[in-house]
């Protein structure tokens, strides 16, 4: 069955005409991203949009939500007055399953522990016409690639790794739940027209090198914010030689460079994957308009004329990479990694190696890793590290079990975890003798921020391809280079690992007994969605208060965050995931991971009401109880990482009025705006140093709040002096209305009320 085939037919029927109209409008050849963007405008354009400046309204084809973010997104949607979603939408239960002992036991525990949440998501999906993928069905991005992604389409998803679908030539963009509500309600979705980074891939990969190494290399080049506000478009002979799932890996981890999304141009590899996953009809339609699903020939001939930046990578020369620790852009070629480990005194012993996740759990990934596991068996090598395998979907899991690959992993002591996010997002009950002991792990995941995987600050987490992760698991040593080094086996012989081998697609085809899909009711009007007032997992939402119409004065400084402050620092995952549907309860994790610039501690800030130090959430609750607003000050790329809108909703709920930073990550800045918060940046980044611990802060100029017009912040210091500084913002007219109304959802609610 092809999901939503009529919608796809409509997109493809209209695409050639829209592309030709765009070519005339811009008066030049087009990149693939431009073709898809202009073909998905909410209203036809009359003049070209300026990259990096123009706010544009789009009409995405579909919405995807994972269970942790879907709770808040759907709690918001059910208040907006719609009877049914306006575009095809799905919910995927993948985040709430904790990895502890193994797939069956962990899934059973999750079904029991999260029963209330799963029933809520199932029933609300049933009511509003949303497809529901049950716990165990798989990770959202893998399931989307297998079932919903199609070349030339546009989708948004409430997870930062939504761009995974770019592996099938789709513009797929991670957003907060409020953005998803807009699209599900049939409204336009707003995005600043992205800049374009072109990555030309030449040559062809071989040996130990894999698709993961391309994005690990790109992350090293662009850093965690080098792709902010940009779409990364991959093209060239090297791109065409790569499997569709390999392309998905690269697009998935493009989130780690801050990119809006990443995309590959349509080719035979994509067509083969569509056919293998039961979508021959989609492949045939794409083949019929193939030229419109690739950049124009002139773009290939002279890419620097059409992209804002061009990077060229020769796949024939690309080395396997290992990135980390603590940040996904610290890139090391394998030939230099051992030296880096020694020079930086990182723990050489590898304690746990983990493969799988939404980034690397394809059939190709698993077969290449299994080829190394088979070598360990045949060459009498003892696997020195703990080793876990996370299949990306039930389709992949069932197929690799049928083909004997799970048995191979079992023979080397590998533990197969549930088809879920697990350790990648901190859902990992890790067994370790001393949680404060420095230790190293390596994963084929996408993120490796401190505490990300196991909640332990002492864990040094590294990221690599599944092949490299498996090889290092066998060695148990981070300084091992499988391309050059030998290992001593159980017989005392020195042996080398041969290059990994694998298959892009299963020779017998994919197979599955129960993929885990639940179709919604044709008519959901009679379906009841019940949320108990006594629940500690779910809480119905109340509208946020509108702006009071005055400048904001007498605000307290809540925290001046120092250094990296991701959404993990602002709203941790792991054990807190269970409260994702209860705004007040989850607000107790607000900013507990952020480092206070005044004492270098986490979750310890000065309460200006009593002069005592205490947890960030408790301090803010004291201010809220006293009717006092506050300000959070932050560093560069504040809010990088996951799309979780809880990182914006929690401060809003507890009474924080503004976030003032050196720079924002894209999704988080948008999430703050959607919730009616002030997202401000220092006009002079050095002014960050002027913020003092006991400051009382005024925000002036709000009565003249206008696009492009700076505001003024007055820092009133304890000694009676003050600093008046200029702060910038990126609000347009519509976003200013969100602020005035108390949030975008209040605007949507009033619009639907007026229609009715």
Automatic annotation (TrEMBL):
<feature type="domain" description="Aconitase/3-isopropylmalate dehydratase large subunit alpha/beta/alpha">
    <location>
        <begin position="34"/>
        <end position="476"/>
    </location>
</feature>
<protein>
    <recommendedName>
        <fullName>Aconitate hydratase A</fullName>
        <ecNumber>4.2.1.3</ecNumber>
    </recommendedName>
</protein>
<comment type="pathway">
    <text>Carbohydrate metabolism; tricarboxylic acid cycle; isocitrate from oxaloacetate: step 2/2.</text>
</comment>
<dbReference type="InterPro" id="IPR015928">
    <property type="entry name" value="Aconitase/3IPM_dehydase_swvl"/>
</dbReference>
<keyword id="KW-0456">Lyase</keyword>
<dbReference type="InterPro" id="IPR000573">
    <property type="entry name" value="AconitaseA/IPMdHydase_ssu_swvl"/>
</dbReference>
<dbReference type="Pfam" id="PF00694">
    <property type="entry name" value="Aconitase_C"/>
</dbReference>
<dbReference type="InterPro" id="IPR015932">
    <property type="entry name" value="Aconitase_dom2"/>
</dbReference>
<keyword id="KW-0411">Iron-sulfur</keyword>
<dbReference type="GO" id="GO:0003994">
    <property type="term" value="F:aconitate hydratase activity"/>
</dbReference>
<keyword id="KW-0809">Transit peptide</keyword>
<dbReference type="InterPro" id="IPR050926">
    <property type="entry name" value="Aconitase/IPM_isomerase"/>
</dbReference>
<dbReference type="InterPro" id="IPR018136">
    <property type="entry name" value="Aconitase_4Fe-4S_BS"/>
</dbReference>
<dbReference type="InterPro" id="IPR001030">
    <property type="entry name" value="Acoase/IPM_deHydtase_lsu_aba"/>
</dbReference>
<dbReference type="InterPro" id="IPR036008">
    <property type="entry name" value="Aconitase_4Fe-4S_dom"/>
</dbReference>
<dbReference type="Pfam" id="PF00330">
    <property type="entry name" value="Aconitase"/>
</dbReference>
<keyword id="KW-0816">Tricarboxylic acid cycle</keyword>
<keyword id="KW-0479">Metal-binding</keyword>
<dbReference type="InterPro" id="IPR015931">
    <property type="entry name" value="Acnase/IPM_dHydase_lsu_aba_1/3"/>
</dbReference>
<feature type="domain" description="Aconitase A/isopropylmalate dehydratase small subunit swivel">
    <location>
        <begin position="557"/>
        <end position="684"/>
    </location>
</feature>
<dbReference type="InterPro" id="IPR006248">
    <property type="entry name" value="Aconitase_mito-like"/>
</dbReference>
<dbReference type="GO" id="GO:0046872">
    <property type="term" value="F:metal ion binding"/>
</dbReference>
<comment type="similarity">
    <text>Belongs to the aconitase/IPM isomerase family.</text>
</comment>
<keyword id="KW-0408">Iron</keyword>
<dbReference type="GO" id="GO:0051539">
    <property type="term" value="F:4 iron, 4 sulfur cluster binding"/>
</dbReference>
<dbReference type="GO" id="GO:0005829">
    <property type="term" value="C:cytosol"/>
</dbReference>
<dbReference type="GO" id="GO:0006099">
    <property type="term" value="P:tricarboxylic acid cycle"/>
</dbReference>
């Amino acid at each position: 069955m092809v999901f939503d085939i009529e919608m796809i037919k409509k997109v493809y029927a209209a695409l050639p005409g829209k592309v030709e109209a765009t070519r005339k409008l811009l008066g030049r050849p087009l990149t693939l991203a431009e073709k898809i963007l202009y073909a998905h405008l909410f209203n036809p354009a009359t003049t070209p949009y300026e990259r990096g400046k123009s706010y544009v309204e789009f009409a995405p084809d579909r919405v995807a939500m994972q269970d942790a973010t879907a709770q808040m997104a759907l709690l918001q949607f059910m208040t907006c007055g719609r009877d049914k979603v306006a575009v095809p939408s799905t919910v995927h239960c993948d985040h709430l399953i904790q990895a502890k002992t193994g797939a069956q036991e962990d899934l059973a525990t999750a079904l029991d522990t999260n029963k209330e949440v799963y029933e809520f998501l199932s029933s609300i999906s049933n009511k509003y016409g949303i497809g529901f993928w049950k716990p165990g069905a798989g990770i959202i991005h893998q399931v989307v690639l297998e079932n919903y992604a199609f070349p030339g389409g546009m989708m948004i998803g409430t997870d930062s790794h939504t761009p995974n679908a770019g592996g099938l030539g789709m513009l797929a963009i991670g957003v907060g739940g409020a953005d998803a509500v807009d699209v599900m309600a049939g409204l336009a979705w707003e995005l600043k027209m992205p800049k374009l980074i072109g990555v030309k891939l030449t040559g062809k990969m071989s040996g130990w090198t894999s698709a993961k190494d391309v994005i690990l290399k790109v992350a090293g080049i662009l850093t965690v914010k080098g792709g902010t506000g940009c779409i990364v478009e991959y093209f060239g002979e090297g791109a065409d030689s790569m499997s569709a799932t390999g392309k998905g890996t690269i697009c998935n981890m493009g989130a780690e460079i801050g990119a809006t999304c990443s995309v590959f141009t349509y080719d035979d590899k994509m067509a083969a994957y569509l056919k293998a996953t039961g979508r021959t009809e989609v492949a045939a339609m794409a083949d019929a308009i193939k030229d419109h699903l690739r950049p124009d020939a002139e773009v290939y001939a002279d890419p620097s004329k059409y992209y804002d930046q061009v990077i060229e990578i020769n796949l024939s020369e690309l080395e396997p990479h290992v990135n980390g620790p603590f940040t996904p852009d610290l890139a090391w070629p394998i030939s230099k990694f051992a030296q880096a480990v020694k020079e930086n005194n990182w723990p050489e012993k590898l304690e746990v190696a983990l493969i799988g996740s939404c980034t690397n759990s394809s059939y190709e990934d698993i077969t290449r890793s299994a080829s190394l596991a088979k070598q360990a068996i045949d060459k009498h090598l003892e696997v020195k590290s703990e080793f876990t395998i996370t299949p990306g979907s039930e389709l992949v899991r069932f197929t690799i079990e049928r083909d004997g690959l799970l048995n191979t992993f079992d023979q080397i002591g590998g533990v197969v975890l549930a088809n879920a996010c697990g350790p990648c997002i901190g859902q990992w009950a890790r067994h370790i003798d001393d949680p404060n002991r420095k230790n190293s792990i390596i994963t084929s995941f996408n993120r490796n921020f401190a505490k990300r995987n196991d909640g332990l600050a002492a864990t040094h987490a590294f990221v690599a391809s599944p092949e490299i992760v498996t090889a290092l698991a066998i060695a148990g040593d981070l300084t091992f280079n499988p391309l050059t080094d030998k290992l001593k086996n159980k017989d005392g012989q020195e042996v080398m690992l041969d290059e990994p081998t694998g298959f892009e697609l299963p020779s017998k085809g994919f197979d599955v007994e129960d993929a885990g899909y639940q179709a919604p009711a044709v008519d959901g009007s009679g379906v009841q969605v019940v949320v108990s007032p006594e629940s500690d997992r779910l809480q119905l939402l109340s509208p946020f208060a509108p702006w009071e119409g005055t400048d904001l004065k007498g605000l307290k400084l809540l925290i001046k965050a120092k250094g990296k402050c991701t959404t993990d620092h602002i709203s941790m995952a792991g054990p807190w995931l269970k409260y994702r549907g209860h705004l007040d309860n989850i607000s107790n994790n607000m900013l507990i991971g952020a480092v206070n610039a005044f004492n270098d501690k986490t979750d310890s800030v000065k309460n200006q009401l009593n002069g005592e130090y205490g947890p960030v959430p408790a301090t803010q609750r004291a201010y809220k109880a006293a009717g006092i607003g506050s300000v959070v000050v932050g560093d560069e790329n504040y809010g990088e990482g996951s799309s979780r809108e809880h990182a914006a909703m929690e401060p809003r709920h507890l009474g924080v009025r503004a976030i003032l930073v050196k720079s924002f990550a894209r999704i988080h800045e948008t999430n703050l705006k959607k919730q009616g918060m002030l997202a401000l940046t220092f006009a002079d980044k050095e002014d960050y140093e002027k913020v003092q611990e006991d400051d009382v802060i005024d925000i002036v100029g709000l009565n003249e709040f206008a696009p492009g017009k700076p505001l003024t912040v007055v820092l009133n210091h304890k000694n009676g002096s003050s600093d008046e500084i200029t702060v910038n913002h990126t609000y347009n007219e519509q976003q200013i209305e969100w602020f005035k109304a108390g949030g975008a959802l209040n605007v949507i609610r009033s619009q639907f009320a007026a229609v009715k």
